[in-house]
Amino acid sequence: MFTPTHLRYAIRHSAAALFLALGVPSIASADEITIFAAASLANAMAEIEEKFEAATNHDLVISLAGSSALARQIQQGAPADIFISANTDWMDTLEADGLLEGGTRFDLLNNSIVLIANGTGAAPISIGPDMDLAALLGDGRLAMALVDAVPAGIYGKASLESLGLWDDVEEKVAQTDNVRAALALVATGEAPYGIVYATDAVAEDDVTVVGTFPEDSHPPIIYPAADLANRDFPAEAEFLDFLRGAEAKMAFERQGFVVVSQ
């Protein structure tokens, strides 16, 4: 089937042929790079997509979802070029499967998890072993990404277990496929509270951060990035270099991420 992707390819190569026929130096060819990225990166990746495409003439196709869903798609042969995960475990899994290009993996970002409440101006809450989260929820639900699969949910559950709060709220948790869906439940008032990344809360006006979970209550939140081993072309390395550069750093920091020193 002749798709829009094929059409773009044909136009590019026809144009290159015309330049050569006229004796005009051709510009560097453009490539399409498919990025699989954790859903919590949505806002930052939108800005990075615009800046990278303007700087290089390459096209980015960005697919956002929970890291677990993306990793499983990669295992099943999805045609992705770059993977940015919200935790190291899923990247470890792909590396063990031989699905990463050797020497391309690096830690890109850090994040934190927060407790959010519906609306604006909610009162701050001291997060610790004495917090009565079940009482705060009442008959409502605690919105979280899948607690056994999606990194934001895994970190949130680990923190609640560390603080001795999980058993009291387990039956009140409303699990979603990714962290942005959990954020939406709180923003729309379907859940009074939720656990999301600090960077997600920045992206939504209809929630209030009422507390930050202690760093020592969950594993370090690290976002690794890597080139996938299914194909190899120079534009992939260009994009990974761009992720380490100043423009990407500013885009990530505007969303509240901490960029790991390279």
UniProtKB/TrEMBL annotation:
**Do the record's keywords include Metal-binding?**
yes
Gene Ontology BP term (one): molybdate ion transport
Q: What cellular component terms from Gene Ontology apply here?
A: outer membrane-bounded periplasmic space
The source's domain of life comes to: Bacteria
Which InterPro entries does the UniProt record give? ModA (IPR005950), ModA/WtpA (IPR050682)
Pfam family example for this protein? Answer: SBP_bac_11
Q: Where does the secretion signal sit in this chain?
A: 1-30
Quote the record's binding site residues for molybdate: 40, 67, 152, 179, 197
Sorted keywords for this record are: Metal-binding, Molybdenum, Signal
Is the keyword Ribonucleoprotein assigned to this protein?
no
Q: Which GO terms describe its molecular function?
A: metal ion binding; molybdate ion binding; tungstate binding
Coiled-coil parts of chain: none
Task: Write down the PANTHER family for this protein, in alphabetical order.
Answer: MOLYBDATE-BINDING PERIPLASMIC PROTEIN, MOLYBDATE-BINDING PROTEIN MODA
Family indicated by similarity: Belongs to the bacterial solute-binding protein ModA family.
Q: How does it assemble?
A: The complex is composed of two ATP-binding proteins (ModC), two transmembrane proteins (ModB) and a solute-binding protein (ModA).
Return the protein name.
Answer: Molybdenum ABC transporter substrate-binding protein
What organism is this sequence from? Puniceibacterium antarcticum
